[in-house]
Amino acid sequence: MRKLTFRATLAAVLAVLLFASALTIPVAAGTIGHEKIRLNITGQKATVRKTSTVCAGEIRVNDEVAVRYLYSEDITRSAEVFGALREAFREMSDGGGFAELVPELAEKEPDPGLAACSDDGYADKMNDSWRNASDVGRLLYPDLQAVEPSSSDLFTLDGGFAAGCAKQWKDVDIVDDAGNDCRLSGPLGVLNAVFSDTVTYTVEDGVLIKHIDRLIDYDCESVGVVITKVNMRDPGYSPTLFDDVPPGAYYEDAVYSAVRRGITVGTAPSKFSPDSGCTRAQVVTFLWRAAGKPSPAATDNPFSDVKPEDYFYDAVLWAVEKKLTAGTTKSTFSPDEVCTRGQIVTFLWRRAAVSEAKSDNPFDDVKKSDYFYDAVIWAVDRNVTKGTSPTKFSPEAVCTRAQIVTFIYRAG
User: Which of 113, 114, 148, 239 could form an SS bridge with 231, CB 3.0 to 4.6 Å?
Assistant: First the structure.
């Protein structure tokens, strides 16, 4: 085989093609055949040209979802940006209801903004006051009492979402307008893409091959999403299911939230056993259920004490896959071992996929060298826990069922 190679920039492509068509090349099989194209992406860069904010709200009435909505004043109305937002919600364990609210757009629209509601009767009444579900709940249901308010940043709400974004853009350099490196803080929607191509031609076995080495520059919009939720209850409504969860207990709302979300059903039909300790198997199962019971990608089980028939089998493989835990040894998970407070907040901190703690440490029983140090300070920052006293966290104390569901509830 004989091969001829020459290079061209985009500006010279037409001249090259004309030249190639007139060129006589001695080849074994005679004349040049049809052209083939080979594309090679040699580099990608995404520049964040715009940031926008979307407020996502969920309002329950007596524990049942009544209204979900999306509101933004500045998001670009384009198929690419809305598509990135929709996929971000789909990555969430409970984001399907929000994903369905993102409109399908055929082309870019001139005016920014988004106002979408699961109840069409409210869509044209949405305005800047629809930024927080608690405010909206009081507006829509003034005779009900707001309980269980919560707020979460979409990007830190679910480690799976953050990992999904990172995987999608893993080969792309992300920079701000000044060209400085920046980390992902939400879904990126492409506003524009510029291709810089270098074209090389070769002739192989009588066929003209067009090689395109392509650099891609994306102009993007970073969409920050804040999700707020509230439960509006009738003053006479009582969710009581367990006779060992007294009304007004600090963990009451957390327990019934966990039941509604399918995280736990209690230890018996009328018992929650709030003061009982939580085993490692129970804790990873709670977290797995809170994430929507995702199927683990890995099928290899490294633990001799975890069997396929165990209720916690998928939960353990998922927890190891997400690096929430690595087991107690390389070959044992110790599913019946009771968890401590230090271990629980570490699981939650790793699930949130956040960086090291930045606040001061108020506890004299938590040292910088402790594996749970950053997790404890993060938990205090996020109001997940305030410790067992102003100066004690009690990291080695057994974490009770009441405490773990409360931690999960507050962490979002």
Answer: 148
